[in-house]
Amino acid sequence: MDGRYDGKRRLVRRTVFGSGAPRGALLLLLLSVPAAASPPAVSIGIVPPYVEKVVPEASEVSDSIAFSNQGTDPVLVSVDLADFAVDKAGEVSEEPPGSQPASLVPFLRISPSSVRVAPHQQVFFRYSAETPPAFKQLRAMIYFSSRPEVPARPNQVLVVARMGVPIYVESRDAKPASLRIDDVKWERSGENLDFLTVKLTASNEGERNIRPAGFVLVRSSDGKFDRSYTFNEGREPVLPGQKRRWELSFGPVPAGDCAVKMRFAASPRSSYESKTWIPAIGG
Amino acid sequence: MRRGWVLAAIAAVAVIAATGGAFAQSAGDSITVTAANNGIFLFNIVGASFDFGNVDANGNTSSAGVPGARNGSNNGAVYTAAAATTWTCNSAPQRTVRIFNASTTATVNWGTADRLSMQIPVTGLPGGSTSCGYKAFSTTGDGGAGSCGSGNLVHSVVTGNGTSGRTGNFDFRLDVLDTDATGANTWTVVMTASGA
Lengths: 283, 196
Known about the structure:
The structure holds two protein chains of two kinds. By secondary structure, chain A is mainly β. Chain A has helices at 5-15, 20-32; strands at 42-47, 51-55, 60-69, 75-86, 92-95, 108-111, 114-117, 121-130, 137-148, 156-171, 179-189, 195-204, 214-220, 226-231, 243-250, 258-267, 270-278. Chain A has two helices and 17 strands. In chain A, strands 2, 4, 5, 7, 9 and 10 form a six-stranded mixed sheet that branches. A four-stranded antiparallel sheet of chain A has the order 1-3-8-6, with no helix packed on it. In chain B, a hairpin with a 6-residue loop joins β3 (68-70) and β4. Chain B is elongated. The N and C termini of chain B lie far apart (58 Å). The relative contact order of chain B is 0.22. β1 (42-47) of chain A pairs antiparallel with β1 of chain B.
């Protein structure tokens, strides 16, 4: 099995089919695959979308990031590093490399720094970091810039996709994350007030990231409506020392009285839980 | 005979399903963003380049078919390419992304560097997304400020997988003055998408 498309077809013929009719059935199945929409010129997939590693101090950590080009054009991929910060709303701001106290950039190496990736090809970028003797959390953004190879034409605008993958290296000795919930407010929202929105502010008093996962349970007073929603479905982080503000909506929910139970991880060993009564619309 | 065809089809499906995993690292595979695989960042750009073609200061349609219009001040022309290309961003897990211009390079043989400007309109994007309007190309990257300062194009775009994938347009505008001896230019626009 060599992993090539031709190899796949040979394997299918050799092991299963012997007559023309089965080959026709297989052909029909294979033809149905390209019937989907044609791929874009640039289609980049990166796995994982973020990296979090917990290591001892003064140690080395290494792994790889997979980069796939599913577009129709070959791309020349180059890597650059930057520091970053995250604001209360969860938006990332890019900072010059090495400018932040928690910068991982001085300790981080990526290989290769540039490579040509053909359509439908996947490559792996190897990263390694040698951590200093004392640290709590170091972080950096690894940017992958994909420059398409296209023929030059008059007054041409070339579009380069640059994708940032955050990498966090945390010390095993760092204090675990601990969320302090500063404020929680529930209200009905949406044009028909058929959604519930929670406005929540929390601070991470620990020295490591936390991506609080949990659920929101909404139950009507008559018991006919009973539904669970995922809290922080995107597993967005609260960084050490960060104050984070969430505004999450759940629904649709009924117009009558509802009981809302919310529970999510506030640290590796504890959860935050609240119960709220939402009155009926006009009630 | 009919039974043979049915069995063959079932067998074909079974074989394709069974061999799928073995091709996970092979060329030609696709990666599907689902909640189950929970960990990928996708960025698509339909057109990797946009060609204005040969233009002039009178606003005649360019050689590439881009319509031009004479400036209101009667000095040069403006060529506008709305939805010149389209971008799509998917992420599992969901993340808040911004797209901004970090470009600093261009080959400008006529006029000045900031003749090209661009914007990402919020049409089709979820509420809360903010377009920063047309930004001149010569504006350097905004450093991720998250506002409409400097070269920002659009921010507060919350993107996830499936129906939470986001698609937007990229509008380009090219200014030509009467004093320009128009020829060939190239611009490289870097669209940065990042989250925490």
